[in-house]
């Protein structure tokens, strides 16, 4: 009986996600066609208009305004929980990426990976009465909102969240997503490498952009900057993030699996010495990536101080296929045991 109800509930939730996505999609397509603009820009306008139930700022024909009014009348915020709204927005952003052929840095962290990160954080902070998060490169805010919703349920508390994003369109999408989900957050529309006055937090978490940071002058103040040429942006963001983590707080990042196997890694490791414990590096299943060079891992760092100590052993390994539920569950059990016995 329980399984039947669980399946029924999942079906209803999926229908609600589709329903909300359909509202966003109909509106975005209508605005896109009449304005002859990108789907992404149309989605940003849609997210504001659907929340306000107001088409007056869209500057469309009277006929289009009427159509949008009918579309928006189908949306009642109280009919949806935050996670359903997040997934609907996620689908709309995925469509924008496809329709507009958007560059790779708009890609969204898959929910399976976000769930694993949330699982790790939940285990570390189980029993706590508060937790604060910072994403120094939040993009569209999907990872941060996914974690907020997950941690609210697993830890039975309201996380405090902050995010930094420099890209105009991604910041607007993130801000709208937080607002429609009724998640209070401190958001900074700035370049983190220019030393944003972000708060100190318990956990820094991010699906880090990979590549070179173009403005060498901005990178000079970072210990992880390259002595010659451009610096790796993911190195700089790790340093920025850990500088905004409290004593014995954590940094959990999606990074290239080969992070410590490049020439530039020497500078990163030198900066970590005496400041930060490398607690874990868990490769994600290789099947998720087109080739070995593209493979990513979950990096677990911890600031020294407080009750922090070097985990022994460091958690190293590779997740089994997410499709192999038995092996995947066994690996999560091993993470649980490591967090309890070796990390804490």
UniProtKB/TrEMBL annotation:
- Domain named DNA methylase adenine-specific: which ranges? 109-314
Q: Which UniProt keywords apply?
A: Methyltransferase, Transferase
The segment(s) forming the YtxK-like N-terminal helical domain are 18-96
GO BP terms:
methylation
- Tell me the GO molecular function terms: methyltransferase activity
Which N-terminal residues, if any, form the signal peptide?
none
| Transferase among keywords | yes
What's this protein's name? DNA methyltransferase
């Amino acid at each position: 009986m329980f399984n039947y109800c669980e399946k029924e509930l999942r079906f209803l939730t999926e229908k609600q996600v589709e329903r909300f996505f359909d509202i966003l999609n109909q509106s975005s397509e209508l605005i896109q066609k009449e304005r002859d603009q990108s789907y992404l820009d149309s989605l940003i306008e849609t997210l504001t208009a659907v929340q306000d139930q107001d088409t007056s700022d869209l500057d469309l024909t009277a006929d289009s305004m009427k159509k949008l009014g009918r579309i928006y009348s189908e949306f009642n915020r109280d009919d949806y929980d935050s996670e359903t709204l997040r997934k609907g927005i996620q689908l709309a952003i995925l469509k924008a990426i496809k329709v507009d052929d958007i560059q790779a840095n708009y890609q969204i962290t898959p929910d399976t990976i976000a769930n694993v990160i949330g699982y790790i954080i939940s285990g570390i902070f189980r029993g706590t009465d508060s937790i604060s998060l910072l994403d120094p490169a939040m993009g569209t805010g999907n990872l941060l909102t996914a974690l907020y919703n997950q941690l609210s349920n697993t830890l039975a508390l309201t996380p405090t969240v902050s995010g930094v994003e420099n890209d105009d369109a991604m910041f607007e999408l993130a801000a709208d997503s937080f607002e429609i989900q009724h998640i209070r957050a401190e958001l900074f529309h700035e370049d983190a490498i220019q030393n944003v006055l972000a708060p100190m937090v318990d956990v820094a978490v991010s699906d880090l952009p990979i590549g070179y940071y173009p403005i060498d002058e901005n990178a000079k103040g970072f210990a992880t900057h390259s002595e010659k040429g451009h610096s790796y942006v993911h190195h700089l963001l790790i340093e920025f993030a850990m500088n905004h983590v409290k004593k014995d707080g954590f940094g959990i990042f999606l990074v290239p699996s080969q992070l410590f196997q490049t020439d530039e890694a020497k500078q990163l490791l030198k900066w970590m010495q005496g400041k930060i414990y490398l607690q874990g590096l868990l490769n994600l299943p290789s099947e998720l990536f087109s080739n070995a060079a593209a493979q990513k891992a979950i990096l677990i760092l911890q600031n020294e101080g407080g009750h922090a100590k070097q985990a022994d052993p460091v958690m190293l390994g590779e997740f089994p296929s997410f499709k192999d539920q038995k092996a995947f569950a066994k690996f999560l059990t091993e993470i649980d045991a490591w967090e309890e016995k070796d990390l804490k």
